[in-house]
Amino acid sequence: MNNETLATVYHGIIIHSLDIGNLEFIRNGLLAVHPDGHIAFLERDVGQLVKEHLFIIFSYSQVVTLSEHQFLIPGFIDTHAHAPQYVYAGTGLDLPLLNWLSTYTFPRESAFSSPTYALDVYKRVISRFLRNGTTTCAWFATIHLEATKLLVDVIRANGQRAFVGKVNMDTCGPDYYVEKIDDSVESTRDFIQYVLDSEPDTSKSSNSSNTAKPTRLVTPIITPRFAVSCTAPLLDSLSTLASEHDLPIQSHLSENPSECELVQSLFPHCRDYTSVYDHYKLLTPRTIMAHGIHLSSEEIAILRDRGTGISHCPNSNFALQSGVCDVRRLLNAGVKVGLGTDVAGGYAPSILDAVRQAMTASKACKIQYLARAEERVERDPDYNVLTIPEVFYLATMGGAKLLNLEDVVGNFVPGKEFDALLVDVGVADGPIDVFDHDTTESLFEKFLYLGDERSLRAVWVKGRRVAGSSNSDEF
Ligand code: GUN
Ligand code: FE
């Protein structure tokens, strides 16, 4: 029997979210992964006898015993990022949104008319995100059909789970980077067909009886860039395409005050920014809206009622001076929330960074509520900043729920697929120092605040090893 046909059993510390406030630390855990990538079982606190006889009990499996400074966590889920923008990540952060788009973004994105250039960039960005532990990502590409197909090919070759959108924009763009409406709709149709037809349908070949329904690795997602860049007929056509093919939708919402004013002037018949998307039937339970910073209570209620969620992109919200998103307010209202890097509005290709900046954003909210810094903010000394269990939930299960993948990934419930990270906080020359007083809980927290690529010894998607700082199967 070769390794491909063997189940793998991991023994050691396993950490995952059961619910938003419910972070589970399993100390003596056993997690078994079926060769088809599904989690076969998860056992808690196995006894000494089992520990001593693992290799006999699981003689038909590979057994991996983790060290005391290692633990398994679910893979990170990035609910909003722009693959082409990776080329200028970490630069051009001196302008607010609308100027930033016309000065840096559109010129860079227009270069993806060249498939050769696109292929080189897309290989690098996917590899970078996987090394940072992003096992699932909702990607914006560009308006170019061929380059966007190549992004799908690269994602599949590298084994990331992804939603990929060909960007739609038929107005308010520069002459060199705008589409005609018919081309925009036609190429989106072509793109959807390409993605749906080119992934082998694993449901036909799977013969394992104890596993959940197989899922596709790459899903096409309808991607109107934002209300500013789409005419009303284009928004109409895109919502029709989404419902015809039962597809998810992604866009930007209420990111920057000037953008909100512009949307209001372009769509005067709609009460507010959220109502524009609602009017064109783009707010569905499968819609992901990035940012959602400057929303009224009425707008938040619409999102909740439609089942539409928000991708919280704190790095970008600070870097482009867009504002501070009050995630607690969204959560309290029952709106789904996940984390996003929003590369390159956000400069870091890492959900660990999003975790840190989400904590800072939450504290900035609290400071505002304490000081009543602005008239429109009521003083609230009892405002609760995000906790470690909550922010980790947003990085994993919250993202899975936002993408409607909660039955597939996000935690280690048996039957789900094994998208996971093997974290090592004791890695030689790594970013973390371990002291005698440290506990499993404190090491987990240190990883969230101090960890980096070096701390991720292995990264798996659907049970397949796709990245990691360890060069071998010895972790
Ligand atoms: N709004 C419209 N396009 C974009 C983009 O590329 N990035 C961000 N952050 N906001 C946008
Ligand atoms: Fe964005």
Automatic annotation (TrEMBL):
Its cofactor is Zn(2+). It comes from the Eukaryota. It is an enzyme of class 3 (hydrolase). SUPFAM superfamilies: Metallo-dependent hydrolases (SSF51556). One of its GO terms (molecular function) is zinc ion binding. InterPro entries: Amidohydro-rel, Guanine_deaminase, Metal-dep_hydrolase_composite, Metal_Hydrolase, Metallo-dep_hydrolases. Pathway: Purine metabolism; guanine degradation; xanthine from guanine: step 1/1. Binds 1 zinc ion per subunit. Catalyzes the hydrolytic deamination of guanine, producing xanthine and ammonia. Belongs to the metallo-dependent hydrolases superfamily. ATZ/TRZ family. This is Guanine deaminase. It comes from Jimgerdemannia flammicorona.
